[in-house]
Amino acid sequence: MDRPNAIADETVPALPRGVKFREDKARSRFVLLGPERIFEADAIATEILKRVDGKASFKAILTDLTQTFTADEATIRPDVEAFLTDLANKQMVSL
Amino acid sequence: MSGSHVDLQADRVAPPRPQPPLGLLAEVTHRCPLRCTYCSNPLQLDPKSVELDTETWKRVFSEAAELGVIHLHMSGGEPTARRDIVELMRHAAEVGLYTNLITSGIGVSDAQLDALIEAGCDHIQLSMQGADAAITEAVGGYRGGYDKKQAFADAVVARGVPLTLNAVIHRMNIHQVPAMIDKAVAFGAKRLEIAHTQYYGWALKNRAQLMPARADVDRTIDEVESARERLKGTLVIDAVFPDYYARYPKLCNGGWGTRTFSVTPSGKILPCHAAETITHLDFWNVRDRSLAETWYDGPAFNAYRGTGWMQEPCASCERKTVDYGGCRCQALALTGDAAATDPVCIKSPRHAELGALATMEAAVCDPGPAVYRGFRIGQETERR
């Protein structure tokens, strides 16, 4: 079953073992890698994934994003939640 | 080296320069304790005496990373049969490749597994021949294999390394697809590949023994669909369906010379692991050539890249950049012409014949014994 989109503030998103986020120099981009999986991160995805370090809480990631990009948290929160939940359903992020 | 291929391409009409490859299948050895009748390795296996040495494989992995390869699939044969497998794994991880060990799980000790993980193995793919000992051991030709595989899967999961099970499906185990899905969950696997047999190498030789009936194939499609929905978040299921019953051919490996390539135990650089069956192609070897010059300029890679090589009905087909005419190895094996339309395609004049052949083979009650994979062809036939 798909999990609901809402993510609690204190949840700490992390990359599960076997999932790597790294620069793909040959193609000038960042990629999220799993077994047989290559997820090409666009500019926004890259900014989110760079902050998924297994230490920062979801709230801390949101705060960092809103400060860095002078965005409104209420506006970006649903998008970040949907993005991370989708990756969690694909086992590319753990929540 | 980048200067040289630019010059070469200036002098001829060539397709646009391809993107760098994403994946490398490194068949580090053909030695294997299992003798699976569905093996896609060539009938003529490379003996140990011609295998690349440690330093050459390390150079290959360095060149692959430099070229832009992301996933390295360390396979064979049984890759852990090489005594230097830990050193190779360490090097591949150090140069930044995502490392996938493709193994039978047989003969891998806990100590060797620990060393491979410590060396940087990112992911392990374990082959699964059946959901019980009887089928597993009949297909793999190895007594006691089932218990060893189970123990290996437990050891991998206990160490926290993500595990994929790869189940190759055919007539002998197609009734066990739901049981294999359950088994994958019980093992703690993150991912399961339900891969219907592709008919190359030993599998082509044993096609009459392996070809499932159409109705059984259709049933597994439904079984996989419902399991995917039920197990979302627990188990990812990737499925490859058999193409003899299809209407359109598969896009071979993401397209010839487009996404991935292989290196054989003796160092041949191939657009796909079955490409050696196209004997008129000139395959370069890592002993003489770099991966980069081979990928961009190797004659075998350029032979079927793009659409310039196509004949009718492919040349004027609206799907020609969708499936690129299907599989070249299959076209050769089934029509005698590697540039023909893959007969899986409904537009091929041979399409009806292919479906009829599969239906007929699947309908035979007792197709006789399959030939087990081995270094001496035909000497290891046993009762199925």
From TrEMBL, chain A:
Pathway: Cofactor biosynthesis; pyrroloquinoline quinone biosynthesis. GO terms for molecular function: quinone binding. The keyword Cytoplasm does not apply. Keywords: PQQ biosynthesis. GO terms for biological process: pyrroloquinoline quinone biosynthetic process. The keyword Chaperone does not apply. Monomer. Interacts with PqqE. This is Pyrroloquinoline quinone biosynthesis peptide chaperone PqqD. The gene is pqqD.
From TrEMBL, chain B:
Pfam families: Radical_SAM, SPASM. Gene3D superfamilies: Aldolase class I. Binds 1 [4Fe-4S] cluster. The cluster is coordinated with 3 cysteines and an exchangeable S-adenosyl-L-methionine. It is an enzyme of class 1 (oxidoreductase). One of its GO terms (molecular function) is iron ion binding. InterPro entries: 4Fe4S-binding_SPASM_dom (IPR023885), Aldolase_TIM (IPR013785), Elp3/MiaA/NifB-like_rSAM (IPR006638), MoaA_NifB_PqqE_Fe-S-bd_CS (IPR000385), PQQ_synth_PqqE_bac (IPR011843), PqqE-like (IPR017200), Radical_SAM_PqqE_MftC-like (IPR050377), rSAM (IPR007197). Its EC number is 1.21.98.4. [4Fe-4S] cluster binds at residues 32, 36, 39. SMART domains: Elp3. It catalyses: [PQQ precursor protein] + S-adenosyl-L-methionine = E-Y cross-linked-[PQQ precursor protein] + 5'-deoxyadenosine + L-methionine + H(+). Belongs to the radical SAM superfamily. PqqE family. This is PqqA peptide cyclase. It comes from Jiella flava.
